[in-house]
Amino acid sequence: MLFVRGSHTGRDDEKGIRIVNNTVLEAIRGGIIISCQARPEDPTYGTDIMTAFALAAKQGGAVGIRCDGPEDITAIKEATGLPIIGIWKRPCSDGLGHIITPTLEDAHALAEAGADIIAIDVTDRPRPGGVDAVTLIERIRDELGVLVMGDCHDLPQAVRAQEAKADIVATTLAFPPGLGPYEPNLPLLRQMCDTVSIPVIGEGQYWDLEDVRRAFQAGSWALVVGSAVTRPWLIAQRLVEASPRGRPT
After folding, report:
1. Of the residues 63, 66, 81, 86, which has the fewest C-beta atoms closer than 10 A?
2. 248 in a domain, yes or no?
3. Is residue 237 part of a domain?
4. CATH number of the CATH domain containing 45
């Protein structure tokens, strides 16, 4: 059975967090969402492999999947029936890196593919078409009727996303200098949970079980975990680096 979207009637929960009365939000609350994404150069690249990862995640108790692009969204939604955070990574217009779901056309395609939540980059990086994040959030909510998640780099971006009526904010892009390769940005997560009145999702470099516990203790609505599950070469590398032989050159 496929997951059914809920209504957008507002209410306050027992902790005072402003949420929408939405079955998707309730379904992911307190749970782990697995990010099933791969780049073309990865050995796991391909919709069939991403769907297998998503099915394995569901078997392990995941409450949702974050995935990239309409093809993967449709396949994973059909296979798992879990709530889907849909994104579409596009090249930045300055040619430096990628940006998450930068256009309304991308958001329409993700919604049509079956995304229950559409995540967008709310940084100030240049976007194809020049539409700013605030306008994009407003139009997705008005035109598509799906939840919008703001992928943030810092606290002001989370506040701005909330003011634009985003339903969720996340620490997806929060990698300050000095942060270790297996270290999530828990300080920012705590700041966001203490400051905004919409659900906050922790995401980015969650590898350690104690960090997962700390994230929920800080008030995280749910937690997105990716590499620790769906990039087996990084899991192998971490183990190899702790061995007597170390990482092969």
Report:
1. 81
2. no
3. yes
4. 3.20.20.70
- Per-residue pLDDT at 129: 74
Q: How many domains does the chain have?
A: 1
pTM of the entire structure?
A: 0.90
Could you give the CA distance from residue 229 to residue 235 in angstroms, rounded to a whole number? 8
Domain that holds residue 119: 9-173+180-241
Question: Of 199, 150, 229, which Cα lies nearest the Cα of 29?
Answer: 199
How are the residues of the chain apportioned to helix, strand and coil, as percentages rounded to the nearest 5?
Answer: 40, 20, 40
Are the C-beta atoms of 6 and 21 separated by less than 8 Å? yes
Q: Is the pLDDT of residue 246 over 80?
A: yes
Distance, CA of 249 to CA of 234 (rounded, Å): 15
Read off the pLDDT of residues 144-200 as tens digits, 9 standing for 90 and up: 989 999 999 999 999 999 999 999 999 999 998 889 889 999 999 999 999 999 999
- Whether 1 is covered by a domain: the verdict is no
